[in-house]
Amino acid sequence: MKPTAPPPPKRRVEAVALGASAGGIEALFTLLSGLPPTWSLPMVIVLHVPENHESHLPQIFADRLHLPVHEAADKMPLAAGHVYFAPPGYHLSIERDRRFSLSCEPPVHFSRPSIDVLMSSAADAYGRSLAGMLLTGANEDGAEGLQRIQQAGGITAVQDPNEAQISIMPQAAIALHSPDHVLPLRELRALLLQLESAHAH
Fold first, then answer.
1. How far is the C-alpha of 23 from the C-alpha of 124, rounded, in Å?
2. What are phi and psi of 133, to 5 degrees?
3. What is the side-by-side strand order in the sheet with 181-183?
4. What is the C-alpha separation between 152 and 68, in angstroms, rounded?
5. Given this model, what pLDDT does residue 3 score?
6. d(C-alpha 195, C-alpha 84), whole Å
7. Pick from 154, 152, 130, 156: which is nearest to 143 by CA?
8. How far apart are CA 183 and CA 148, in angstroms?
9. What is the Cα–Cα distance from 124 to 152, expressed in whole angstroms?
10. What phi and psi values does residue 182 have, to the nearest 5 degrees?
11. For residues 200 and 105, what is the distance between their CA atoms, to the nearest angstrom?
């Protein structure tokens, strides 16, 4: 499947859900580094990390981004322009009042936090005003969640498997449904900027 340049978004997006696994830190640096401090969309990220380790992701990304970065906490409301990472060992959901919820339910695709859990709950909370992006990874977590976003009318995008460090995750999403965009990281970044520009105006 050839990458296609993203057309202007047809709708106003209010949040972005992102998922990645193996190779995800480097992919997220490429996607997010240098976003402007005026950035207005909340971005919620599930990156598969070992359950029994404290996560340093918020600090690592806070040092690289010009945006506020947090580890998501139970009942924390989503704020405009902030970046949130799921804590290790918990599923992260977004409730309909757009606050986070943490749970210890069984792993999904051997993963807790699970991208599917985040994306499915975000689709219920935001409907057509959500964008979902799935990047490099070594299992199929996220494919069903991205499909839920598409079914709810949101925008779906995956990293071009030919560029991904590990192509299993984006390929699983493409096999399950047809994402709106299949793009290399630099074009996913251009899409992000388009979505944010449409949101800000």
1. 28
2. -130, 135
3. 69-71, 83-85, 43-47, 15-20, 130-134, 155-159, 181-183
4. 28
5. 47
6. 18
7. 156
8. 20
9. 7
10. -125, 105
11. 36
What pLDDT is recorded for position 1? 47
Residue 81 CA to chain centroid, in angstroms? Answer: 14
Instruction: Take residue 167 and report the two structure tokens written for it.
Output: 């192509």
Structure tokens at 45: 């990220």
162 residue type, one letter: N
Nearest CA to 18 among 160, 140, 183, 192? 192
**What local confidence, expressed as pLDDT, does residue 2 receive?**
46
Cα 193 from Cα 107, distance rounded (Å): 33
As given in the structure block, the two tokens for residue 133 are 């992006």
Output the pLDDT for position 49. Answer: 78
Looking at the chain, how many residues does it have?
A: 201
State the Cα–Cα distance between residues 124 and 146, nearest whole angstrom. Answer: 12
Per the CB < 8 A criterion, the answer to whether 176 and 144 are in contact is yes
Q: How far apart are CA 195 and CA 8, in angstroms?
A: 8
Instruction: Put residue 109 in one of left, alpha, beta given phi > 0 → left and psi -120 to 50 → alpha.
Output: left
Ranges under pLDDT 50 in the chain: 1-3, 5
Q: What is the pTM of this model?
A: 0.93
Q: Quick one: tokens of 85?
A: 């990472």
Q: Out of 3.40.50.720, 3.40.50.180, 3.40.50.2300, 3.30.360.10, select the CATH number for domain 15-200.
A: 3.40.50.180
Q: Which residues are catalytic?
A: 21, 48, 141
